[in-house]
Design a protein that fits this description.
- The protein is mainly β and 268 residues long.
- Helix content is 2%, strand content 41%.
- It starts with a strand and ends with a strand.
Length: 268
């Protein structure tokens, strides 16, 4: 997977000038994070205890995310950060040697959420340059890809639903729902948690096809005399922005099955 990203500035980027220990606890009031942000000519400011605890001053060092409360200027673009909230967002609090890369995570740094399924896997990023007015963007083929092993716990899954209904009996191969996605949604194996109902039961078992971009991915089945549906999907299926989900009636629809409603449950 290649992810296209743009970084507009690097105002708080540098390196550790001394080792950072791992005394345990959060906040860590024993260890000091000494940083040199000369390369970005940055300035780090102190915040309240509440803001630090809420990770307002989120920073990165060697794979660990942390926040600080107090930033003491020791010399030009050199700071000592104390009262550290360690191991944020599922990263591991650890010791880090001098020279470890450091960055303050603010609006000058690009970021993107990723699902927990990517943790431990390698993703690839390309960084495109452009001019001061935002034009002349480099082509993806012109820049190298940088690999990164995803860490942390990933973005917490957020439940999302896609609902539809049809208030009549179906005709052959009728598309009873067409839905286009504006973001990424993943549906689980078997469409676990999804629901379907009929106002008038079927005379015989009737299967509606569930499709992704016109390809079959699952089924919604109303058994004979049943008013609730069962679902099948062989594997988890992810829809990206622009993908289309359709629900299609069978070639020979049941003559009595009518007044259908359904909700597919997935996660973002």
């Amino acid at each position: 997977m290649h992810l296209r990203a743009r970084f507009l500035a690097r105002r708080h980027r540098g390196v550790l000038t001394a080792p950072v220990g791992n005394s345990g606890g959060s906040p860590d009031i024993t260890d000091t994070c000494s940083v040199d942000v000369s390369e970005s000519r940055g300035q780090l400011l102190s915040v309240s205890a509440t803001d630090a605890a809420n990770l307002v001053t989120l920073c990165y060092m060697g794979g660990e995310l942390f926040a600080y409360q107090t930033a003491s200027l020791t010399s030009a673009h050199h700071h000592a950060l104390t009262t550290l909230y360690r191991g944020a967002y599922g990263t591991i609090a650890a010791s880090h040697p001098a020279g470890t890369q450091f960055a303050r995570i603010d609006q000058s740094v690009g970021r993107f959420p990723y699902p927990s399924t990517l943790v431990g896997q390698s993703i690839f990023l390309k960084f495109l340059s452009f001019n001061i007015v935002g034009g002349a963007v480099q082509n993806l083929s012109q820049v190298p890809a940088y690999s990164y092993a995803a860490t942390g716990s990933g973005k917490a899954a957020v439940s999302t639903t896609v609902s539809g209904s049809f208030a009549a009996t179906s005709t052959p191969n009728l598309v009873v729902q067409r839905y286009v996605f504006a973001g990424t949604v993943t549906f689980p194996v078997g469409l676990a948690g999804s629901q379907g109902t009929a106002g008038v039961a079927a005379t015989s078992s009737t299967t509606y096809a569930i499709k992704k971009n016109a390809a079959n991915i699952g089924t919604m089945v109303f058994s004979a005399a049943a008013t609730t549906a069962t679902f099948a999907m062989a594997s988890a299926t992810t829809f990206m922005s622009g993908d289309v989900l359709t629900v299609v009636a069978p070639l020979t629809p049941d003559p009595t099955l009518a007044n259908l409603a359904w909700t597919f449950v997935g996660s973002q």
